[in-house]
Amino acid sequence: MDNDEVVRELQSLRVAVEGLTQVVLRMEAKGRGGLAGAEVPELTALTARQHAALQSLVYGLDTGITARIMGGISAETVKTHLRQVGKKMGVTKRGELRVMGQKFLAQGTDQEYMAATGGFGRTYMIETDVEVEDEMRSLIAPVKPGLLVTE
Q1: 97-142 tens-digit pLDDT
Q2: Spatial contact of 91 and 34, defined as CB atoms under 8 Å apart
Q3: If 0-12 CB within 10 Å is exposed, 13-18 middle and 19+ buried, where does residue 116 land?
Q4: Long-range Cβ pairs for the range 66-72 (8 Å, 24+)
Q5: Distance CA 133, CA 130 (A)
Q6: Whole-angstrom Cα distance, residue 151 to residue 148?
Q7: CA distance 140 to 126
Q8: Per-residue pLDDT reduced to its tens digit, 78-100
Q9: Residues 98 and 40: beta-carbon distance below 8 Å
Q10: Which of 68, 70, 109, 145 is the most buried if burial means most Cβ atoms within 10 Å?
Q11: pLDDT tens per residue across span 44-53
């Protein structure tokens, strides 16, 4: 995917998320939404791995690709990270978590976000190459090398 395609995909995703946000807010106003008790936590409330997993959800990455970027962990471990993020935000449904994730990623400055994650930015998960190791990978990869899933 070249940069123009990535930009178009992100713009399309942003429009979809904004539309979904409006639907959820209308449902909430009618008392039928699941986000009534949800809160956007501070940037520092999530671990680096949880930030990465949340980014992957917001940007629509497949859990398999996310797992590979996160050091070869399993897709189930990615889902576990997302469940933990959902608990911190007070939501249980994937769509609700995506809406809350969009709000979460929009808060604070870029410098504050990078400080909270240990150095990677808001778009790290969609900008990184799955096949290429980088210095940020160690922040989201398992600490114990024996935990890596080999294919």
Answers
A1: 999 999 999 998 999 999 999 999 999 998 988 888 888 888 888 7
A2: yes
A3: middle
A4: 66/125, 67/149, 68/130, 69/125, 69/128, 69/130, 69/137, 69/140, 70/140, 70/141, 71/137, 71/140, 71/141, 71/142, 71/148, 72/141, 72/142, 72/148, 72/149, 72/150
A5: 8
A6: 10
A7: 14
A8: 999 999 999 999 888 999 999 99
A9: no
A10: 70
A11: 999 999 999 9
Structure token pair of residue 25: 């807010």
Distance CA 112, CA 109 (A): 5
Residue with tokens 């992100």: 10
Spell out the domain ranges in the chain: 3-141
Instruction: Give the rounded distance of the alpha carbon of 149 from its chain centre.
Output: 21
Type of residue found at 36: A
What does the block give as tokens for 41? 């936590």
Q: Side chain identity at 43, as an amino acid letter?
A: L
Tokens of residue 123, six digits: 């778009």
Token readout for 107 is 């808060």
- What are the structure tokens assigned to 150, written together? 């080999």
